[in-house]
Design a protein that fits this description.
- The protein is α/β, with parallel strands linked by helices.
- It is 29% helix and 24% strand.
- The protein has 13 helices and 21 strands.
- A hairpin with a 2-residue loop joins strand 7 and strand 8.
- Helix 5 crosses helix 8 and helix 8 runs parallel beside helix 9.
- The model has no long low-confidence stretch (mean pLDDT 97).
- The protein binds zinc ion (ZN).
- Zinc ion binds next to loops.
């Protein structure tokens, strides 16, 4: 089966040029001007942009948390991703008591309904000699990434010795450590004090997780990576000082890379003071306007490497059902913490919003170029996580994950427009210009305007190679 996309303007991480693209079966076979061929389908992309499908390196689908579960599974979350132009998503396997094999099996089962291509990172939330010995076995499962936490004492956190040893093991096996950086001890202390003083409102979520903890933990993580001679990838950078620390370490040759997420570019902790403040609760929390600005600078000047979403949606009011694909469904959500901020599930929707929102508020607003947009949302994550050039590239031989992007299309964005399975949207009422028109996954048209043409089980588990340090 051959599809010819004619007259589009291709945007890659480095170039912008006019060309036609020929898709044969699942891959891009040719790119060039005035391609003539006996294609089965032709798509006219005049006045449209052609981007490589988005790669979201950080999502949490079907993740159990606080007596509920994140409300998108590997089908609904992937479908929403596709409508936003993302064709590859990576989520995190919870480390069960039984060990890595069992944990990965569970996640493979959950992902059988995948609608876009996917891969997993492994949460390394316990560390002892036995676990240390089995870490290299993850390479056999082509899961080359370990996530560690410097917060969530007694639940997810490793001590610095464990993190340092994990970095050494990663170095020796060609793996990459990803790090959630906050100060667990400070957070536990402040949280206990806030509760003892009777503070229960959502804003206390932010007030008990200060930015300095993230700043200090990011520098600590970079310093440990340098001492272990291993690369490290810091997830969801949210504070100005973290960007400063990233820059400081990178200027000194430390192999540290940084990801931010849309929520940290647009919102502040003041959103948590609203009556519906629970909608904005995620960890780490949103910070201040100055932090938003410094993160944009970090994207403009290339200190940061990627933009993920940390998509981990919950209903605002899970007692009320919503209709999804014709069925009513209710899933307990933020209301679980109505009387105690520590019981509000941590996380936000965003997997569909990422690219349209960043196009309008990043590219159209002049903070990043179209090429940087592609680099941060697709090419760089593909390179860092060992998927390039199969993903994140418009080159012959690459998977035909292609987005035909309409830079003129205007949308009043919000929950009615979104396929994320939740009852609210952070960008409700925002006027966006620039959206995906058609989305191809390995040559198959899965989104055509407002029409869903993808399917459960249409996504593939990706065998990754060793990643690059950017
Ligand atoms: Zn996350």
């Amino acid at each position: 089966m051959k599809t010819l996309i004619k007259n589009g303007t291709l945007i890659t991480a480095s170039d912008t040029f006019k060309a036609d693209i020929l898709i044969e079966d699942e891959t891009i076979s040719r790119i060039g001007l005035n391609l003539e061929t006996d294609s089965d389908h032709q798509v006219d992309a005049s006045a449209k942009l052609i981007l490589p499908g988005g790669v979201d390196p950080h999502v949490h689908l079907d993740l159990p948390m606080f007596d509920t579960v994140s409300s998108d599974d590997h089908y609904t979350g992937h479908k929403a991703a596709a409508f936003g132009g993302t064709t590859t998503a990576m989520d995190f396997v919870v480390l069960e008591h039984e060990g890595f094999d069992h944990s990965v099996d569970l996640w493979m089962k959950k992902a059988e309904k995948a609608a876009i291509d996917y891969s997993f990172h492994m949460n390394l939330t316990r560390f002892d000699d036995k676990i240390a010995k089995t870490i290299p076995s993850l390479m056999g499962m082509v899961i080359q990434t370990l996530k560690v936490f410097t917060a969530y004492n007694g639940r997810l956190r490793l001590d610095d010795g464990g993190i340092f040893k994990a970095l050494q093991i990663a170095r020796d096996n060609g793996m990459l450590v990803m790090a959630h950086c906050e100060n667990g001890d400070v957070i536990e202390t402040l949280t206990a004090q806030a509760l003892a003083q009777g503070h229960t409102e959502p804003i206390w979520h932010a007030l008990t997780r200060p930015a300095w903890g993230a700043v200090e933990a990011s520098l600590r993580m970079a310093a440990m990576a340098e001492q272990a001679d291993a690369p490290v990838y810091i997830v969801h950078m949210n504070a100005a000082g973290e960007v400063d620390m990233l820059q400081y370490a990178r200027e000194r040759g430390v192999k540290v890379m940084g990801e931010t997420c849309p929520q940290y570019l647009f919102f502040t902790q003041d959103h948590l003071r609203r009556d519906d403040g629970a909608k904005w609760i995620c960890s780490p929390p949103m910070r201040t306007k100055q932090d938003n600005t410094r993160l944009w600078q970090g994207l403009s000047n290339g200190v940061l490497q990627t933009i993920g979403t940390d998509h981990c949606p919950f209903y605002f009011d899970g007692a009320r059902s919503i209709v999804y694909e014709g069925s009513e469904i209710a899933i307990p959500g933020k209301e679980l913490g109505m009387h105690d901020f520590t019981k509000i599930p941590n996380g936000l929707p965003g997997i569909q919003d990422r690219m349209p929102v960043l196009w309008t508020c990043g590219v159209n607003a002049g903070y990043i170029t179209p090429n940087q947009f592609v680099a941060y949302t697709s090419t760089n994550p593909a390179k860092i996580f060992g998927l390039y050039p199969r993903k994140g590239a418009l080159v012959p031989g690459a998977d035909a994950d292609i987005v035909i992007w309409d830079p003129e299309k205007q949308v009043r964005y919000g929950v009615a427009h979104s396929h994320q399975r939740t009852d609210y949207n952070l960008f409700e009422g925002w006027e966006l210009q620039g959206c995906p028109e058609k989305v191809f996954l390995r040559g198959k048209l899965i989104v055509n305007g407002d029409e869903w043409k993808g399917k459960r089980g249409g996504g593939k588990f990706l065998k990754r190679n060793a990643g690059e340090v950017l």
